[in-house]
Amino acid sequence: MQALCSVGKRIPKIDAVDKATGRAQYIQDLKLPGMLYGKILYSKYPHARIVHIDTSRAKQLPGVRAVLTGADIPEIKMGVYKDNRPLKVGKVRSYRDEVAAVAATAPHIAREALNLVEVTYEALPGIFDPEQAMQAGAPLVHEEHKTNVLKMPWKLHYGDVEAARKEAAFIVADRFTTTWVTHCCMGTSGAIAEFDPANNLTVYSNTQIPSLAQKDFLEALKAMGVQDRRVRVIKPCIGGGFGSKLDTYAYEYIAILLAYHTRRPVKVEFDRTEEFSATSTRQPTITYISQGCDKDGKLLFRDVSMILDNGAYTSWGATTPSVMMMPITSLYRVPNVRYEAKCVYTNNTYAQAMRGYGNPQATYAIESTMDMLAEAAGIDPIEFRRINANKAGDVSIQGLRITTCGLEECMAVVKDQLAWDRPKEANEGVGMASLIHVGGGARVYKSDGCGTIIKMDDFGKVDLFTGATDMGQGSDTVIAQIVAEELGLHIEDVHVIHTDTDVCPWDVGAHASRTTFVAGNAALGAAKKIKARLLELGAKQLESPLEKLILQDRQIRHREDAEKRIEIGKLLRKTHFSHAGQMLMAEYFYDPTNENMGRDFRGNMSMTYTFGTHGVRVKVDDETGKVRILNYVAAHDVGKAINPMLLEGQVYGGVMMGIGYALSEQVILEKGENMNPNFRDYKILTAKDVVPIAAPVLETYDKDGPFGAKGIGEPGCVPTAPAVANAIYDAVGVRIKDLPVTPERVLAAIRAKKGLDLCGRELSQDHPDECVIQQ
Amino acid sequence: MAREVSFVFNGNPMKMTVGDHWTLLHLIREELGYLGTKEGCGSGECGACTVIVDGEAVNSCLFLAAEIDGRELLTIEGLAVGDGTLHPLQKAFIENGGIQCGFCSPGMIMAGKALLDENPNATEEEIKEAIAGNLCRCTGYVQIIESIKSVSGHQTEEPRVIAWKTEENDRDA
Fold first, then answer.
1. Do residue A385 and residue A244 come from a single domain?
2. Are residues A610 and A496 in the same domain?
3. Mutation for testing the A interface, residue in B61, B74, B99 having most A CBs under 10 Å
């Protein structure tokens, strides 16, 4: 075996120099000649009929080039359920509904013009609670659907849960809720649209799905009556993704429509308030869960029923139950599983994909009740999990094929590094939670593929065109490492181009922690083709048998004869500049053989699964309810760490996002209105909140992964909340079942346990309920 | 209304007319055309627009452009020396994984520089304090703090667990 030179190394991100020097260009930094600025007018009501819109005054403002309303545009349908339009017609269904849009020569003129658009509304009763929205007679968000419950059949039953329930020695059942949280990308959303004279469209957008966006925009052109034209999507540097850019949004279509109407490039760029109030959130969930085990602690069943607040429109958030199924059916060995999820329209903001894609919500309920069940059965929580741990070679009841599995090792290392059994001070506790996540692609779309093109130049350098999207996670670096390794080149010899659909092949998008695995395999496939050609040419040149040659340090070398070697660049030039010359190029499209879920939702959706265990030590202040994290260990089975430094970055970042989810983050909606659209009131963690995190990595070497790797983009934030909640229970004996676990909630629970209200008074006393926490 | 200001921009003397209502961020990005300084919120909450004025880290989105008169302004573009050699902090961010999406990086690096110029032996706690106003959503700050710490004179050797492997799988492809 040849020792690895690039793979497995702590190589800095290849775009880091540009980013450290301020050269990197984001959508905020792009300006096209003659560009206009688009601004959007949002609804003043959460639910209302649009009676009349008068744009005449706005249109007369000097500098305004176009004012559009829903009446001015064709029927462009957006979203997975096609229930949304770029500019609303007839009625608005949430505060973030786009009512009108303006293009002007300067941002402040566009903003001023919005103030001149006069909209007459007729308010309608709103519905903001998904459980109420399911009841008969509730106001309908979309009348044509006749019900607020989406017709999405998220329902499975494997085995016989009722029979297992009768056999169970121990059963726990409870209700858990999670609320809206949002991505908080540091770079806000934005797009520039430009038409050429023949109506070919170029869109600059910080999207995670360039290929699917291209298709969406082509459909929009079709709706606009622009047939048979080209769409080019260019990605500038992306200032953070985390799932927020997995769909196409009204602002992108609005930029397109304004550009079409003005025949000028138009940019729509969100300010921070818009970023908070007009981008999508993680799905809030209400989860009813019960789990049971036999007297020895073996899980017998898991029964989960869930209600998701879809908001007013449907984006990919409504399909998160497809991913929730994975932990529900397959985190630990469970022989009988039932799951049902209802996505319900409300007049709240609509939800989308966010790091973990439903898995954090589901794992919160599962891992909280795992601890509860362990306690009921009188078994140590780690031992209880070990008894039920997945193992390599398992096929889960949903049909997930577990090829490699380091779950037990992860638990053991967490136990060790957290010093689990160490004597604890008063109000100190430890908690643990594990995770399963797709680690080898996720077949949620018809294709899970990614293409790569490699072009060798005359100097031994590679231009690599990939469909993958780097939004900061470092996929371009990982891909370069894989290709450099395979071709015996240095990392700086590989130039990764991932920014332009005109030159980059198709990819389904940067989601599901799939890029290292899928785009990595695509790059590896193309590199293997180039390698084969290089070896062939080298064998001829060096007059040596091909199998004796290796690619190393920019040369083709004979394994045994040090004299026999040639620079790869020189070989390429010889091949090019000769009679009937050739240049080396290769393409490879990798589509994993994972399966779409069948009618009963069975199917091996990923080629491999990433496992991990998080453990946390907390100290709870029982006077204030404040939770302090003393130590955090996040262990993951990653197959192979292609770049340990970037991998740790994913874990640290994920854990800190997860701790925010657990303890501090919430979008506060008051009858659908965002009450905290700024960083003062929406609490993401700061540097002062950093906790000591260890991120041990287990390498199980997955046979299907590039150099054995599995995906690790999302797992960092998946089991964080239940690990914290379990630790709080261990510390002070209260179980918090609603996220975020605010000090108020902890304090209320501590006091309730003592028979006191939040203010510390006896519950029996007759006093008004000013001490009740508003949920 | 406008007024004339003189200041030193990344080491070069400048004289120009600025609008009374301009922010320093507007001056840097829109008028001077230096785009390394980012706007993350426009209201002093995120620190992405951090620049150094007379040695002090400031949110340029809250700083009136007119007040730059007679002062020295340093932006991320002025950090590397003329031949392109990066500042030690830039190198440290690159080499320690302190950069992911990169949107917060210029502001983060400038905040780190202002701290270390003032206090070359900053401790981890002092580093956390100095960048508490600079938000980052990607890194969880861990590698950012490590980056700044690696340049600070106050270095502590704390071994970190990097990886452990199962024996049977301890192989290279």
1. no
2. no
3. B99
